[in-house]
């Protein structure tokens, strides 16, 4: 059974599929432009020393976003 979580709760090396973005319209649009679209696969690369921001791999490139922003992205954990 798929396990729902948010992007900020994934650990280094874990992967997930984007399910939903809960954010204001301006930032939500920016996330979608960066490739955070439903069913896209995201892998956690690493975190800064205080776990903020996090580096994520998606659609062939890496992006860093803040923990508060990652908390707005609903994910489904997947095994790689």
Please identify the structural class as seen in this structure: alpha+beta
Instruction: Give the overall shape, derived from the CA principal axes.
Output: globular
Question: What does the largest sheet look like?
Answer: 6 strands, antiparallel
Helix content: 10-25%
Average pLDDT for all residues: 90
Count of DSSP helices?
Answer: 2
Order of helices and strands: EEHEEEHE
Instruction: Quote the distance from N terminus to C terminus.
Output: 15 Å
How many beta-strand runs?
Answer: 6
Strand content: 35-45%
How large, in whole angstroms, is the Cα Rg?
Answer: 11 Å
Strand order of the largest sheet: 1-6-2-3-4-5
Low-confidence stretches are: none
Outline:
This protein is α+β, with helices and mostly antiparallel strands. The chain is built from two helices and six strands; from the N terminus they run ββαβββαβ.
Name the descriptors.
alpha+beta; globular
Question: Helices, strands, pairings?
Answer:
Layout lengths: L2 E4 L8 E7 L3 H9 L7 E7 L6 E5 L2 E5 L1 H4 L2 E6 L2
Antiparallel strand pairs: 1-6, 2-3, 2-6, 3-4, 4-5
Could you explain the architecture of this structure?
The structure is a single chain. 16% of the residues lie in helices and 42% in strands. The protein contains two helices and six strands. It has helices at 25-33, 67-70, and strands at residues 3-6, 15-21, 41-47, 54-58, 61-65, 73-78.
């Amino acid at each position: 059974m798929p396990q729902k979580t948010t992007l900020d709760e994934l650990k280094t090396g874990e992967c997930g599929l984007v399910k939903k973005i809960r954010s204001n319209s301006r930032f939500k649009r920016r996330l979608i432009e960066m490739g955070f679209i439903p069913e896209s696969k995201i892998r956690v690369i690493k975190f800064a020393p205080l776990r903020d921001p996090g580096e994520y791999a998606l659609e062939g490139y890496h992006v860093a976003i803040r923990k508060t922003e990652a908390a707005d992205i609903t994910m489904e954990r997947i095994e790689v």
